[in-house]
Amino acid sequence: MTVPETKSSYYSEGLLEEAVQENRRKLEQEPDNHLLRCSLANGLARLGQFNEAIAHYKKCIEASESAEYWNNLGKALLNAGQYQEAIEAFSQVLSRHQWPDAHFYRALAYRSLNQLDKANEELLEAIRINPKYREALNERAHILEALGRIEEALNEYKKVIALFFAEYQANEAEMYSYETSVLLDSNELVEELIRQLRRYIQKFPGFADGYYKLGQALEAKGLKNEAMMAFRRALEINPSYETARKCFWKR
């Protein structure tokens, strides 16, 4: 299980390695500096060196049992496949603060242990605290689908789509994290996606990616001619849009 990153790192892997080495050097001089140790652990976790990161996070907690340190430890344990220990770490977070992220990550741990009902309960709590928590809504849709609760799963996917477009229109959207194929495999979701995309391009007619995504959805719906028109419009707006070009000419 890899913890999803919501934002891109500011550092390349090479720069991260340099930062880790610098933190190691400083920590030798200040071994009791738990803030410096946490910075080192964060860098190690980003480099995928989870076992060493876990050891440093535990030392941080010995110095200061902050919710942030427990949360970081939980994520490292989750990435290392130590799911029960991760659940215990996130429980420590939640005993201090009701952070929706802690419920979300605890849900991921329960899912990895195939305890889907418990995962669903954690996701419901995360969404109760933050109703616009897209990752939690999307994960809950996956869980409900795995539990055979298809209609409920479709409703959660629809909420995710609606949130995505609402945030995009507010110019606050970041890179979206779920696979488009999840939507295109369901006729009901394709129809919802087409509806939202058509509304979106009415508001932002100069946005090539909106037409490209509309073309994908129309193609999945079997509306080939309309899809080609959408791909062509994307190319008219952005002649360098190679993905749209390939879709247009694959006829």
Characterize the largest beta sheet: strand count, sense, and whether it forms a barrel.
Answer: none
The CATH homologous superfamily of the largest domain = Tetratricopeptide repeat domain
SSE sequence, one letter per element: HHHHHHHHHHHHHH
Beta-strand fraction estimate: under 5%
Q: Radius of gyration in whole Å, from Cα?
A: 22 Å
Briefly note the CATH topology name of the largest domain: Serine Threonine Protein Phosphatase 5, Tetratricopeptide repeat
What overall geometry do the principal axes of the alpha carbons give? globular
- Specify the CATH architecture of the largest domain: Alpha Horseshoe
Report the uncertain regions.
6-11, 170-180
Mean pLDDT: 84
Number of strands: 0
- Class by helix and strand content? mainly alpha
Topology:
Blueprint (H helix, E strand, L loop, with lengths): L12 H17 L4 H13 L3 H14 L3 H13 L3 H12 L5 H13 L3 H14 L4 H13 L3 H20 L10 H5 L2 H17 L4 H13 L3 H14 L4 H8 L2
Question: Can you offer a commentary on this structure?
Answer:
- This protein has 251 residues and is mainly α.
- It folds into three domains: 1-94, Serine Threonine Protein Phosphatase 5, Tetratricopeptide repeat (Alpha Horseshoe), CATH 1.25.40.10; 98-171, Serine Threonine Protein Phosphatase 5, Tetratricopeptide repeat (Alpha Horseshoe), CATH 1.25.40.10; 179-251, Serine Threonine Protein Phosphatase 5, Tetratricopeptide repeat (Alpha Horseshoe), CATH 1.25.40.
- The chain is built from 14 helices and no strands.
- Helix 3 (50-63) packs antiparallel against helix 4 (67-79), helix 6 (100-112) runs antiparallel to helix 7 (116-129) and helix 8 (134-146) runs antiparallel to helix 9.
- The longest helix is centred in the middle third of the chain and has 20 residues, at 150-169.
- The radius of gyration is 22 Å and the shape is globular.
- The two termini are 39 Å apart.
- The model is unreliable at 6-11 and 170-180 (pLDDT under 50).
